[in-house]
Amino acid sequence: MSVRVQPLPGPGLVVRAGELIAVCAEAGAETDALVALVRRVAADGGDGAALIARLAGQLGADGPACAAAALGDTPAILVRGAADVTADGGPGRVHLHGPALTYRTIEGPLWTVQVSLPGSGPPDPRTTLDAGVVGGAGLLAQLPRPAPAPAPPPPRRPDRSAPFEAVIVLPGHAPEPDPEPVPETATHALIEGVYCRDGHFNDPDQRYCQICGISMAQLTQVTRLGPRPPLGVLLLDDGSTLRLDADYVVGREPEVDRDVAAHRARSLRISGPASGVSRRHVRIRLNGWRVELEDLHSANGTVVHRPGAAEPDQLSPGVPVVVPPGARIDVGRRWFRYESHRDPQT
Ligand SMILES: [Zn+2]
Description:
Elements: E1 4-8, E2 13-17, E3 20-24, H1 29-44, H2 48-59, E4 66-70, E5 76-80, E6 84-89, E7 92-97, E8 102-105, E9 110-116, E10 132-135, E11 138-142, E12 187-195, E13 201-202, E14 224-227, E15 233-236, E16 241-243, E17 248-251, H3 258-261, E18 266-269, E19 282-287, E20 290-295, E21 302-305, E22 313-314, E23 321-322, E24 328-331, E25 334-339
Parallel strand pairs: 17-18
Antiparallel strand pairs: 1-11, 2-3, 2-10, 3-4, 4-5, 5-8, 6-7, 6-9, 8-12, 9-11, 12-13, 12-14, 15-16, 15-25, 17-19, 19-20, 20-23, 21-22, 21-24, 24-25
């Protein structure tokens, strides 16, 4: 695949190794280590998602700002610290920014990726980077883009009753529609956890591995950074099930929420006649290994029934509360349950 990569001038280093491109902020020996890591990961091969996941696993949460993109099959992008990545392609625009170490797989072909650190300038059109390392604080990668099919002109019916209206017709210059919102793609937060003897990533507070059930008691509890696994499922009163691997905004019109619009949370639409559900009713937030609920000042409130508790709890609006597995959550006259095979007391 012929990808044109142009460095953006500024302090830092731009690396191109195999299918990986990356930008690292200038930080002396730490930058050299980053560049070496990018090259090592690229040399091991794999598709874009695998390269980025491996890079994320070895990067750690702290260190100089950096950002990377893997442009092969299953493209993926990553960011840490004061860095931005904007990827445009078939599914629309995906934007990642720090400071948290975050990475994401792009569903569909990529056309351009722009990576920038603070202080980066516009690319010099005469420069390209085919392989290796050069100075720079960002990069612009352009991939071969399929020629768009010509759009048929919209049919216009003369309406004799309408007032006269001038229409400029420029064939082939129809305005491009705004990029569609990106469909659901997984955002993998990296969190502190412990690995069982068989390499399963776990909540440090759990006494048994949640995958294989092995006791964790004998292991030295050294926490490491790893991708957060799904924390369980949401079971809705209508029988549907959602995997809990991202934040959600629950409501009658959750799309109006700013976090949903910015792809920081998914929308979970719960409605129905006389449901008593507000447009934005409750926010479900994954915080480390915990699931938190925050009532979004809903009209009818949010009520949590904890397993084994005598009385349900009414959430105070705007105050996030940790809910245990097995809890039932009432939103108006609808409800959902948070289920997980984790110990309910944690
Ligand atoms: Zn295990």
